[in-house]
Structure formats: structure tokens, C-alpha cells
Specification:
The complex is a heterodimer.
Chain A: H1 19-32, E1 36-42, E2 48-51, H2 55-73, E3 79-83, E4 88-94, E5 97-103, H3 109-124
Helix pairs in contact in A: 1-3
Chain B: H1 5-30, E1 34-38, E2 44-46, H2 52-68
Antiparallel strand pairs in B: 1-2
């Protein structure tokens, strides 16, 4: 299997993202999203930059989800949202990065995707996913 | 007697809140599992659970839910 963003359409980030920045972004996402159970941030090659738990499993399972989603529609997906009885899964490719999040049921999808997109954009720009203070 | 202005406002806000709560209750009761894919340009596609692609998406999502585990109760 190629990189998780092998078919990425919106280009890759030219910035090298540190694990610390990705961890900070993930912590901020957890702080902002009370429904969040776990999440991971991956780079263009599919390597896990930060994850809440078993990084290898997050990497494998996120790649599998994107792979299945890409095949389902015949083109690279930008967002995946799967709602089940056990919880909801959100996956997003943006700015040459990818984020996957698992929440409780009935999480607000637009807000969750917005938060994920914001942190990936900030990470790609060299930040740590945490917006500057007022 | 004419009600005080703040009373009118409070009643109106309470009415909206009741409506919203009822909407959320109905939505939760009716909502079924789903798999939705979004593409660049705004196109979206739903995949039924009993389709091949839908089944694969649910399996892949289920594995991620398993990895994330349960959130500890506050």
C-alpha cells in the first residue's frame, strides 16, 4: 500500500512537523472536543506523528480506512464520516496531512471536522495546532 | 397586566430551547448507522451498510473505534 496520502489532491506540506507539535495539537483537540475518545495525526507517508494509544494500530487502521474509502468512490476522499452504534469515526486529509478521530455517538460532525481541519492547517504552517491567544 | 419585557424574552428563549431539545431527541431516536464520504468540490456519497463498500467502511471504522477504546467516565 502506498502512503496514506498517495492520492492526495491538495498538495503536501513542505514543513517538517515535529512529534511534539503534533502531540500538542492532539491534546488541544481533546480539550476542545468533549466527545473525543481518541485521535491520531499522520504525515504524508502514513507515519503516525501523534496518537492517543497504540500508534502502530492507529497507523494501520487509518490507512485501511482511507484505502477502503478511496476504492469505494473511485477517487481520493477528502473526508470520511462513519457513524455506528459504538461510536463515530472522522477522517480528514488536509494540507498534506491526515487526522483520524473517534468520538462518542452524536458528536457534532461539522464542528469536529472544523477543529480537525484547523489543527492540520496550523501544523502544516509550522505551528502546533493551538491557536495564538487573543 | 403587561408582562415585564425580560419575561417575554426569557419565555421566548425557553421556547426555542424546548424546540431544540425535542429536535435532538427525535434525531437521536431516528438516526441509523451510516458511512458518508466527501470529495473535493463538495460532492458527498452515502454507502449503505449492506453494500460491499459500506460493509468494508464499517469494518474499518470498527477497528478504529476498538483502538480508541472507551472514554473514561468523568
Amino acid at each position: 500500500m502506498g502512503g496514506i496520502l498517495a492520492e492526495m489532491a491538495d498538495g503536501e506540506t513542505s514543513t517538517t512537523i515535529s512529534g511534539d507539535a503534533a502531540e500538542a495539537a492532539l491534546a488541544y483537540l481533546a480539550e476542545m472536543s468533549p466527545d473525543l475518545r481518541g485521535a491520531a495525526i499522520l504525515d504524508a507517508a502514513g507515519s503516525v506523528l501523534a496518537a492517543g494509544g497504540d500508534a502502530d494500530r492507529w497507523g494501520e487502521d487509518a490507512a485501511a480506512l482511507f484505502d477502503v474509502a478511496d476504492r469505494a468512490g473511485g477517487e481520493a476522499v477528502e473526508q470520511v464520516h462513519v457513524g455506528t452504534e459504538q461510536g463515530e469515526v472522522f477522517a480528514l486529509r488536509h494540507a498534506g496531512l491526515a487526522a483520524v478521530a473517534v468520538t462518542d455517538r452524536f458528536a457534532l460532525s461539522s464542528l469536529t471536522f472544523f477543529d480537525m481541519r484547523s489543527l492540520l492547517r496550523d501544523l502544516a504552517a509550522g505551528g502546533n495546532g493551538v491557536p495564538d491567544g487573543p | 397586566m403587561v408582562p415585564k419585557p425580560h419575561r417575554v424574552l426569557l419565555d421566548r428563549v425557553s421556547g426555542y430551547a424546548d424546540e431544540a431539545a425535542a429536535y435532538v431527541r427525535r434525531r437521536r431516536a431516528l438516526r441509523r448507522p451510516f458511512a458518508r464520504l466527501y470529495y473535493r468540490g463538495g460532492r458527498a456519497e452515502d454507502h449503505a451498510a449492506d453494500s460491499i463498500a459500506g460493509g468494508e467502511l464499517f469494518v474499518a471504522a470498527g477497528r478504529l473505534i476498538e483502538v480508541a477504546g472507551r472514554r473514561p467516565k468523568a
